[in-house]
Design goal:
The structure is a homodimer. By secondary structure, chain A is α/β, with parallel strands linked by helices. Chain A is built from 15 helices and ten strands. Chain A folds into two domains: 177 residues, 3-Layer(aba) Sandwich (Rossmann fold); 156 residues, N-(1-d-carboxylethyl)-l-norvaline Dehydrogenase, domain 2 (Orthogonal Bundle).
């Protein structure tokens, strides 16, 4: 098959490695990716994955039409960019399959959706042609052929079978699930709750204690709340307890941008100060930060429909209060405890 | 109430702190505890919890009869010691409630039991009077009044209510569960599987890579297998996905004796070499090591009864092979992956 990956960030670049084992692979980058694309064209390593990509062609932003000439289109673009880029290319998408890599939530006219839902709301015919990737997959490890299991989810089991057959390798194993809502919701929410889990490292540094018991409580509570939300959305309440939830939480336990933000908040920084500090360190957009507001909105909407009680989700409530209403992490932890 | 804690190790000593908030507390030690008891009698800190105990009396081994004159007896003795000590005191136990802290499995005439089961098999009248403690509770953090949630489980809901009312404090919160089999089995098996989770840190050092994705896979697989075993034992398959399982795994993620053993195996030590190295470092009995053999035996027995298929528990199988049959960790990880 010909696989075209849109987005030359860490995950888009990493996927060229397993995908090229059995397929022709194109890697296309957005305007923001140009400096990286130039490096890749000179056969240099991708700076964020410590590996060279393995693409048959590297395509520049203006070569988008060529990029769409493929059997499978992989959307590996940030939450903030994916829908506008999709808008630009939607007319050129005929019968290609689509793999969504973007983890996040989109707010459209006051309603909150996972990315696959937002895409198929635009184009209903896509519902059967979209699959999403979740589960523990640090891009650098995928790129270096280190052992990885991921979950491909779709409402279409046939599509899942085709994708698994073409894309699985001996180091990149693909599990399949028809619970795309549960998988995507789990994955997006995990990034939000990761901020709170990381508070603890910040508090540990500030107070010079270990709080492992509290960390156990927070991760357990995270899984309970994500499971409640997934269930209210019509997904499988067990999904958070498998690779897409706990597996990913374990793999990303030590960090990421959400973790950095959470740790600074735990140390006593205000949200504003923490975001400024991350900017100073050259850290890009913290997706969990924007997604937290959307997650809260999503649950508010579900509550209005009588599908969940927002007040029962203690941890989500205090995440919102800390990020957007100036509550201190100490107060937040007291409430959750 | 008068609470008598038998065993002056880290957890027995730590529990004196929350228990003494509303109760009279006695702390009794075995022959092995004498050097610690002498420190405690001199009001020194307990060496393993960095805190002073808060007991109304410290009792020496020969004062066992006085220790049993209490409303609640807490068994905080190692797996290897608990049944023989229980045998010595069984006749003196009348209507006291018993709290079992010991995490482990006991093999009796070829059958494998959790500690509470082994106790009530000896004395059926105890079944209604036993509760067990599971969940994330690092002793040092409990002793230092750092936030902890634990699970008290028992077949007797009335007993759970009484214990919660008397023993809960504002830093030591008690959740209750009637799934004592599920809680205890989860907790004992967690120590066994922790050895395998720690292999990864050893392999990471040896090969100078990170394997976070693989860690996510192994923890997910651990929970799946424990859940299967709990279900086959008649417990609640969801129990491993709450505080007693994932909560405890997160809290103890960085170490403990099982972790040290696992890491050495991952670095390439044989089991014999690893145990020798731990002895050299002054590390005491590695409970997960002896429990692993029992866990395997337990599942063999369940398989014979048609309640589970041993071969489906890939991780338990390779844990057994690495610990007892000389399989290398690399081969084991290949099989599980």
């Amino acid at each position: 098959m010909r696989i075209s990956i849109l987005g030359a960030g860490a995950m888009g670049a990493a996927l060229t490695i397993p995908y090229s084992e059995k397929n022709e692979v194109l890697l296309w980058g957005t305007e923001f990716d140009v400096p990286i694309l130039e490096k890749l064209l000179r056969s240099e390593e991708h700076p964020r994955i410590n590996a060279k990509v393995r693409a048959d062609r590297i395509l520049m932003p203006e070569e988008i039409e060529e990029a769409l000439n493929a059997d499978v289109i992989v959307l590996a673009i940030s939450t903030e960019g994916v829908l506008s880029i999709f808008g630009r290319i939607s007319d050129l998408i005929k019968d290609q399959a689509i793999i969504s890599v973007t983890k996040g939530l989109a707010e459209i006219n006051g309603e909150v959706y996972t990315i696959p839902e937002a895409l198929w709301n635009e184009r209903e015919d896509l519902k059967e042609r979209i699959a999403a990737i979740t589960g523990p997959s640090i891009a650098r490890e995928v790129a270096n052929k280190l052992p990885t299991h991921v979950v491909y989810s779709s409402v279409n089991s046939e599509l899942l079978k085709t994708l698994k057959d073409s894309l699985e390798t001996n180091y990149y194993r693909i599990k399949t699930s028809t619970d795309i809502i549960g998988c995507e919701m789990t994955s997006a929410l995990k990034n939000v709750y990761s901020i709170a889990i990381a508070w603890i490292s910040g508090v540990e540094s500030r107070r010079n204690v270990t709080l492992n018991n509290l960390k156990g409580i927070l991760v357990t509570q995270t899984l309970r709340e994500i499971s409640e939300i997934v269930k209210a959305m019509g997904g499988d309440e067990k999904t958070p307890y498998d690779l897409s939830g706990i597996g990913d939480i374990i793999a990303t336990f030590r960090g990421g941008r959400n973790g950095m933000l959470g740790e600074l908040l735990g140390r006593g920084y205000s949200t504003e100060e923490a975001l400024k500090e991350l900017e100073r360190r050259g850290v890009g957009v913290v997706e969990g930060y924007v997604n937290a507001k959307r997650a809260y909105k999503l649950v508010e909407n579900l509550d209005k429909k009588g599908k969940i009680r927002l007040e029962d989700l203690k941890l989500l409530n205090v995440i919102n209060s800390v990020l957007y209403e100036g509550m201190s992490v100490d107060e937040a932890l007291d409430i959750v405890f």
